[in-house]
Request: fold
Amino acid sequence: MTEQITVIKVGIADMNVVQSPNTIRTSGLGSCVGIVLYSPMKPIAGLAHIMLPEASISKSGTVNKAKFADTAIVELVERLEGLGVKRSTLLAKIAGGAQMFQFNGTSDIMRIGPRNVEAVKNTLQALKIKLVSEDVGGNSGRTIEFSPVTHQLTIRTVNKGIHII
Amino acid sequence: MGYINEFDSIKLDVLREIGNIGAGHAATSLSKLLNKKIDMKVPDVQIVTFDEMMEMAGGADNIVAGVFLRIEGDIPGSMFFILPLEQATKFVQEMIGDSTVNLAAPPYDELSISALQELGNILSGSYLSSLSDFTQLSLYPSVPALAIDMVGAIVTYGLVEHSQVSDYAIVINTELKGEDIRLSDTVNGHFFLLPDPASFSPLFQSLGVKDGD
Reply:
């Protein structure tokens, strides 16, 4: 009963996978979106912390796939498949995409949160992955943690405390 | 690392000097505002990953008062003034002369928020106007916006431009510390100046540092 639980940490523009009994966490999501992919058939999950909507807006030669919604989700699916998870059983939960600051005028930077959320949803739809629940938008930062055993995504915000989706 | 490969020690020294001038003026303003001595560390210029940038401000989860503004004009970029919540509370208490102010949990009272916004206004204004005088470049700062939240959530707004080009950011970081503020050395105010990647060339040009020097 004294099974050691490790929390796998995912940084900004980073991704990783987790197997039970461990959990996976990413901290301080603002405009960024945290995407959890999991399968009810296996206690395995993946988490990506994306910063930008599409890899096509990248101006650098080498692309860090975890940084963009479209490439991160595709990569995460492949990694989970590599661990024996069937693509058709994958489900998703997402959180983040806030607008932390209210500015007059709407520069692209200020709209990055909603754009990220939209890109995540489009990519999930294109890959036919069902979005089970979401906690997006608003103007608070979020720290999220997922358990591949309970499939609960625990969300902590500064202003609203802890809730689970 | 792309464009960041081109940064040699001369360029980093120039950026450090910019931090020195800007933050020096801001520290003077703060000192006048609070009528006490404010210590400023020699600015450091670091090329860091995004995660390391969060660590510089106490970790992505750390809750801070962050003032953020965008700079438009000749050298677009982002600027942050970050204060640990404990220290922000102390500053507000001093500014409005009310020791009962508490920023630990919302709802925050309007006067405290105004005071913090004003603090951000004054400090970033003096930082940027001295920078503009020094470089003879036109800088048009937006009205600063304030958020009390996690460092990660606040600072990523300054990394959007960088993230399209690189996985690294060049941060001109200056720490401020009030003499009478009895907090440990680890909790300091920070100025982060994050010129957009495309701003470095005009910035160096204005200061006579040629590409390839």
Q: What stands out?
A: The longest strand of chain B covers residues 63-73. The interface with chain A takes residues 2, 49-51, 54, 59-61, 63, 68, 70, 106, 142-143, 145, 147-154, 156-157, 159-161, 163-167 of chain B (CB under 8 Å). The helical segments of chain B are 9-34, 50-56, 85-96, 110-135, 151-155, 160-163, 200-206.
